[in-house]
Amino acid sequence: MSSIVQGFTKSLAMTVLSEIGDKTFFAAAILAMRNPRRLVLSGCLAALIVMTILSVLVGWAAPNLLSRTWTHHITTILFLGFGLWSLKEAIFEEGESEELAEVEAQLDKDWKAKNGATKDSNKVDDAAKKHKRPFLSQFFSPILLQAFSITFFGEWGDKSQLATIGLAADENPFGVVLGGILGQALCTTAAVIGGKSLASQISEKVVGLSGGILFIVFGIQSFLSPVES
Prior knowledge:
The protein is built from ten helices and no strands. It is mainly alpha-helical. The protein has a domain of about 160 residues. Helix 3 crosses helix 9. The chain is globular, with a radius of gyration of 20 Å. It starts with a helix and ends in a 5-residue tail after the last helix. Pfam families: GDT1 (PF01169). This is GDT1 family protein. Belongs to the GDT1 family. InterPro entries: GDT1-like.
């Protein structure tokens, strides 16, 4: 039970500090300003839950492919490396709002292109859509699919995904899944409800420094812990 709690706590803290202020956080905030919030929240959360489960499965399988000693040392190096990387980004990168501006510009471009292309066809299709499975057609809407795809591919290969894999290799995977999903839900809900005003007020430097310190603490703890047989 203690290992589940430890995995849950580590995963929750790591996820919150990794996800607040990143590109997918900003994307969720901006999408929610232009579209129904529940569709954006559903799409983003679905992508993050799928990504978390996939990452934990990879981490859980790693000790079966490599020895426990190797996975332990790799996890330690990952945490220390990501900690130093996060500290470097927080200290030396310029302009806290650059990432927000970049995401907003890309979504603006996509939104204008989609708006121009569908303006005429929407008038013709609206009447027909009302009679065709209203719940399913609304739930699996282009908005939900856009939120899902932006979030999923935005997180793929991100350091938070790799850190989740490393954490699952060294901690109880069930606890890591629960902590990761709860952390993702908290961050995404805050982004969707708070909108761009919340996103623009977040200090990326403070979040980056906090996340970097947390990764280094996890790395030191992993280094000092004995390898489980």
